[in-house]
Amino acid sequence: MTKWVYSFGDGKAEGSASDRNLLGGKGANLAEMSNLGLPVPPGFTITTELCTAYYDNNRQYPSELSGEVDAALEHVGSLVGAKFGDTANPLLVSVRSGARASMPGMMDTVLNLGLNDETIGALAKLSGDERFALDSYRRFIQMYSDVVLGVDHYHFEEILETFKEDNELTLDTELTADNWKEIISHYKAAVERELGQPFPQDVRDQLWGAISAVFGSWRNDRADTYRRLHNIPESWGTAVNVQAMVFGNMGDTSATGVAFTRDPSTGAKEFYGEFLINAQGEDVVAGIRTPQNLTKQSRIEAGSNDPSMEEAMPEVFGQLVDIYKKLEGHYRDMQDIEFTVQQGKLWMLQTRNGKRTAKAALKIACDMVDEGLITSNEAVLRVEPGSLDQLLHPTLDPDAPRNVIATGLPASPGAASGAVVFTAEHAVECMQEGKRVILVRIETSPEDIHGMHAAEGILTTRGGMTSHAAVVARGMGRPCVSGAGTVRVDYAGKTFTVGGETVKEGDVITIDGSKGQVILGEVPTLQPELSGDFAKLMVWADEARRMKVRTNAETPADAETARKFGAEGIGLCRTEHMFFEAERIVAVREMILADEHDKASRKVALDKILPMQRKDFADLFEIMSGLPVTIRLLDPPLHEFLPQTDAEMDEVAAASGIDAAKLKQRAHELHEFNPMLGHRGCRLGISYPEIYEMQARAIFEASIAAAEKTGEPVTPEIMIPLVAMKQELDVLKARIVAVAGEVEKETGKKLNYLVGTMIELPRAALQAAQIAETAEFFSFGTNDLTQTTYGISRDDAAMFLKNYQDQGLIEQDPFVSLDPDGVGELVKIGVERGRATRSDIKLGICGEHGGDPESVRFCESVGLDYVSCSPYRVPIARLAAAQSALQV
Ligand code: PEP
Ligand code: MG
Question: What region holds the PEP-utilising enzyme C-terminal domain (predicted)?
């Protein structure tokens, strides 16, 4: 029989850290901390398998579950000396979700569960503090009603605000027990009014309501959005953790806090965190009260007069320090911990590997290698390849003037400029119109996630470094300044004011998330320096990886950037991109519009282009000196080159001397209904071989020139696009070989070169064995291969694929992350059949997937020789390739 419930507490547990998939991250770590003998309030975890079973079975629980929960609850009660629902000594619990991957702010939590009109008296008596008991009860009613019963929290906030106004009170702490009693009766009345039934008094109803709410929230919209953005499969499910309550709000010897064992923003080896005295659970993360520092040092640095935990509670702080060191040593990774102090006694509520910026991830990984805690290979595995993107972002030019209008916390590094918007929806609209925006909010909540994603940066006026805005922005790699307290936001007026300055919606501001600055107007940025820890980790990654990493580049600037980022050659030079420059496009149009049989006119046009191409290729060969360069012959969807306007038509007419009306007629003939599947790629080469001959000549002549200049031999790889059958390649290769012969004869030089093909059509993958008889290398063009395998247009798919994702039909856009089942199967077939014919055939990928970490993993698994990606993704691909090699 399946075991659904796992207990922990009192120095032991039924699970451990290795049961993460079953118990979720939180549950597994609570079990592990119990096993380590740390002070963890006892409790139990209902497994993720139960979540899956619940959904598979039409939201019904298996019949044996309730017995298992009862037994576990009984056990918890026996450990703390209390009983669930007891009117003399009631057990109170928290109910929290905990998925396999942490999902901050996404799932719901209920605290103080087990309180009702009966048990409240016992809590008052046992704590000796009626006011505290009532405060706990009203929090429970509000939280439970909001999360479980769907009565929005503003109902309760309004009641409280009105009460305070009527009674001329400002702070919650000024409210007496009698005040709370009155408020509680208003709260209960509000619930009854909203739901038509009273707030549940039966503690078992409360518990099952909360459990179902957690399982239900696994599929709420916020969780769906988060999962989509972070590629978390729906099938994983969440666990539910039920745990005996401990109270951080039992007076001034109680507190609650969160901490990181190292600085999550910079990676510095400093205990880092925030706490609040006499506060409960979510008060710290919610960003409602501004928390105090943990260490004296950080308090002084922050210029705060509120005592740090080190000063206010030295003894407990000492215990916390011992525990964090133990946890970091045990997990051998930076930990993010939550704790509560109840009347001087420390309780650990959570530990997990802490989220961190890419900069911090690098520093922590490198430092831990130096400390002997992890190996260099482990360090390579510690940094998420995609997160390197954060380091590749520009920073503000330190010499540029900055009109700093406010400062807040440096919540997430990087810098961004954009127009001010005040709502998530508006941010999304602007993004869709191609505008760059900064989202300005008093504080953010999970409902704002899509807007945070759409914005270039985020500014909040409230909340600490662990507030929602800060945590989520760091995860997304968006710069964020949080808690800029001097900024006053007026949502209705669509403005914010600070120090006499009024900033309106649409005005441009810049935020520096590394310094916490808000700056009026746009500030110039600088490109990142990739030295120090970055360079160190890349060396380790390069030692660990098997696949080479090349770049897709056609301009000298891109090639230089890529080489600086460690590219080991060019995997794709799209020559059609070289044809768009103003002085060339006319010649290109002349060539295309020349009469089908007018080879001579085409030749005249091609002769104008030849020297330009020769120079292009020579530049690339020089920049990539000593490294392979793959040049793909012309592959334009024809329509991109056709003149559109009369003026463009006249321009071509003037250059070619052909009558404009005749040209128009020719353009009309060339019009295609489906250019992506039309006269492009090698089909163009078959129709007009002189185009490819010109390009081959330019390549060969450039290779000779570059070799002479650099002293390094150049072996160009000439690539034919969109091949579907061996015959196409045979014809075109013969032409290229003939040109090589001519150039050799003219120059007296021996040429070394390879002729290969893109594999970007299903037929080519299937015919790989035959094609490899002619092709000396394959490069998988997974953009077109995805388009043609799915039969969906790569240019139009975004619109409807979004619906597919929303409806859960696909988890990932197959143009972003390679579809391993269909497209991947074709790649695999291509690899196997190609190698069967030509065992030393060079195999690579040059579709956009070459820079996507998950796709790179796939490439390793099928044994490709290299991946090729855009310049800024080269470091990401290097790291992803290393991780794949280490994990295979
Ligand atoms: C491809 O199809 O994957 C490819 C790299 O070529 P392009 O994107 O230029 O069509
Ligand atoms: Mg292609």
Answer: 531-884
